[in-house]
């Protein structure tokens, strides 16, 4: 039940972290217009490279290391401060590199300076610690409050296209404040540690191993926007960002399992219980399949009318792009389950690194010709093919560790149910009147069809749900 509770907390925050920009983006899209949205997306894609260097793979590494030692509070405190020291030094180094970069990069300096607040915020991000001890409540509640305040600030302060700099500052400061709210709890959660026993640099190489896959991941998260901004236009970069925002909202419901399960699985690995580790993965993989199939087909079914209805005039190209990108929902769900929930806790950093590096290389190779040929849609197809290559490689890596038959046991049932659901929803979306009420009806119809078919086909998720409910009542 702890895993389920943490999953719900994490899903709640991940959804809120994306819903707040989504609620504001419909407003911002109209106020800042495609040009302003594109300028924000393009400059943010650049600052993300410096943020990546400052983060240094600490998200996954810190989460895992804290999970390994959380039974001993003194070891946990020592580990926390060692990792945090490395992170602070890396952030300072990255900020100096950014200042040197700005001596030569003279394009949009005001926007870039505002974006740099995001880089400062990295030094104070200790969410990895609370993920490691599986205390998701503290991060969710505090960050949720800050997100809501930032949403109100956007509606109150952003009034015209000239407010783009202020908009960037509001978003960046909200991230910084969200990170700072976690620090008061550290004094309560960790005992004091003598500085002379700390050995931070022993963590550097293991962090660097996980830094490489983060670099690779950022290639096809940020480089697409950077290349679109350079090869097509900053507006195209904004279109990519707005498509990606909606897809990431859906993905948050799925990938939240990775953050929750990583420390749980790492703890089981530390105890040497490999049978439990494999069983947890089979259940988790089935769950993400059951959720991601209908989300992939459902989002694709309504994307063509959702985008112009939501973002307003001038954002028409986002609809077809999002229909293409919806494919990554399933691919990232699977690679998150295998990579984050299985390979990382088992210490198979090399295999995980190679998998995302393969995706980055594929993305880089395909981006230039596909963007040249098809612009925004070319970048989307490059992203999709990259994610497919990551997932296929990871499945090949675990071929001798896992039973494919058990891993994909219920997958065909979720696929069939989703395909059948897609047909009527897509027809309704393209043939009936385009209103918010009708779109809500389409979502409800699609959900009912999918759930009914899952029950008829007796998919494994049904047995998992029954087992969970039975366990809850038996404890009472």
TrEMBL record:
Pfam family, one: Polysacc_synt
Mode of membrane association: Multi-pass membrane protein
Location in the cell: Membrane
Alphabetic keyword roster: Membrane, Transmembrane, Transmembrane helix
Keyword set includes Metal-binding: no
Any one GO cellular component localisation term in the record: membrane
Main location: membrane
Keyword Membrane: yes
Membrane-crossing segments per the record: 7-29, 41-62, 83-105, 140-158, 164-183, 246-266, 287-307, 327-345, 352-374, 380-402, 414-430, 436-457
Protein name as catalogued: Oligosaccharide repeat-containing polymerase
């Amino acid at each position: 039940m702890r895993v389920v509770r943490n999953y719900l907390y994490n899903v709640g925050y991940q959804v809120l972290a994306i819903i707040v920009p989504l609620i504001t983006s419909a407003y911002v899209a109209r106020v800042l217009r495609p040009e302003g949205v594109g300028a924000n997306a393009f400059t943010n894609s650049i600052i993300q490279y410096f943020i990546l260097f400052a983060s240094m793979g600490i998200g996954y590494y810190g989460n895992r290391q804290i999970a390994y030692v959380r039974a001993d509070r003194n070891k946990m405190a020592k580990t926390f401060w060692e990792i945090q020291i490395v992170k602070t030094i890396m952030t300072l180094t990255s900020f100096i590199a950014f200042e040197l970069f700005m001596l030569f990069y003279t394009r949009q300096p005001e926007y870039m300076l505002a974006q740099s607040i995001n880089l400062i915020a990295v030094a104070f991000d200790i969410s990895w610690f609370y993920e490691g001890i599986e205390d998701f409540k503290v991060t969710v509640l505090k960050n949720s409050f800050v997100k809501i305040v930032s949403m109100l600030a956007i509606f109150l302060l952003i009034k015209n296209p000239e407010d783009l700099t202020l908009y960037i500052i509001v978003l960046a400061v909200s991230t910084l404040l969200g990170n700072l709210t976690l620090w008061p709890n550290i004094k309560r959660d960790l005992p004091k540690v003598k500085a002379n026993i700390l050995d931070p640099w022993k963590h550097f190489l293991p962090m660097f191993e996980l830094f490489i896959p983060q670099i690779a991941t950022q290639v096809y998260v940020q480089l697409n926007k950077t290349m679109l901004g350079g090869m097509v236009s900053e507006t195209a970069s904004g279109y990519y960002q707005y498509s990606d925002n909606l897809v990431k909202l859906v993905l948050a419901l799925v990938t939240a399992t990775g953050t929750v399960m990583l420390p749980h699985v790492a703890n089981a690995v530390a105890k040497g219980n490999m049978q439990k580790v494999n069983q947890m993965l089979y259940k988790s993989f089935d769950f993400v399949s059951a959720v991601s199939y209908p989300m992939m087909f459902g989002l694709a079914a309504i994307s063509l009318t959702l985008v112009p209805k939501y973002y307003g005039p001038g954002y028409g190209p986002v609809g077809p792009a999002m229909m293409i990108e919806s494919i990554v929902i399933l691919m990232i769900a699977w690679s998150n389950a295998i990579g984050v929930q299985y390979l990382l806790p088992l210490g198979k950093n090399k295999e995980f690194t190679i998998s995302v590096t393969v995706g980055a290389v594929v993305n880089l190779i395909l981006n230039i010709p596909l963007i040249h040929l098809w612009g925004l849609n070319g970048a989307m197809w490059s992203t999709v093919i990259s994610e497919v290559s990551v997932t296929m490689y990871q499945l090949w890596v675990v071929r001798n560790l896992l039973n494919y038959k058990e891993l994909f046991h219920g997958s065909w049932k979720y696929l069939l149910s989703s395909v059948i659901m897609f047909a009527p929803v897509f027809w309704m979306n393209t043939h009936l009147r385009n209103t918010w009420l009708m779109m809500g009806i389409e979502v409800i119809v699609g959900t009912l069809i999918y759930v009914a078919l899952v029950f008829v086909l007796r998919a494994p998720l049904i047995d998992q749900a029954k087992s969970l409910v039975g366990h809850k009542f038996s404890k009472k």
